Amino acid sequence: MAVISGERATSRAWNHDIAYHGVVRRAVPASARDLLDVGCGRGRLARALATARPGRRVLGLDPSREMIDAARAANQGIPGLEFAEGEFLDLDIPPESFDFVSFVASLHHMEQAMALTKAAEILRPGGRLVVIGLARATTVPEKVVSAVLTPVAWFNDLRPDFDGTRDAPVVEPLPGWHETADMAHATLPHSHYRRRLYFRYSLRWAKPRA
Q: Which residue range or ranges hold the Methyltransferase type domain (predicted)?
């Protein structure tokens, strides 16, 4: 897995994950001060979250030392931004430590229900969780929809700013759309699940206030 330079890491590159960074950023509560990006890779999203509003403290977490080294090299001197190496499910994080938690193309690398449960526990009341996850079509109707949307995805892959490098290997087989949605709704009642392009889905959940 190649470590890219700091210049490349902070460029206006585009890929299937970066395409949804705006969805994540717009979901952050204005009052959020402590944010966690799980599976931060090279730190693009963590940097955007940290620089969007003064006073934020953003922690980018990734199990890969290579990715953390690249993230630190590319984002030196950003106030409130830190990176740490570690497996999310293995870390001892005190309850109600964060106002916002995000997973972008990282949840499917873990036991998903356990990861969502832990994310809910470490959120403060009123905090928000956003997932941009990967799933696949497993039913006939889903496969028909995927076939219709595939040309759109291929067209966007021709963009001159397309960055096809991956921060982590893709797990195969990906979970199915219905399987993922059912798991999310069972784990986080009142969560909002939406299927999106590029085999992605978004999941949003707000922790009830006491």
A: 36-131
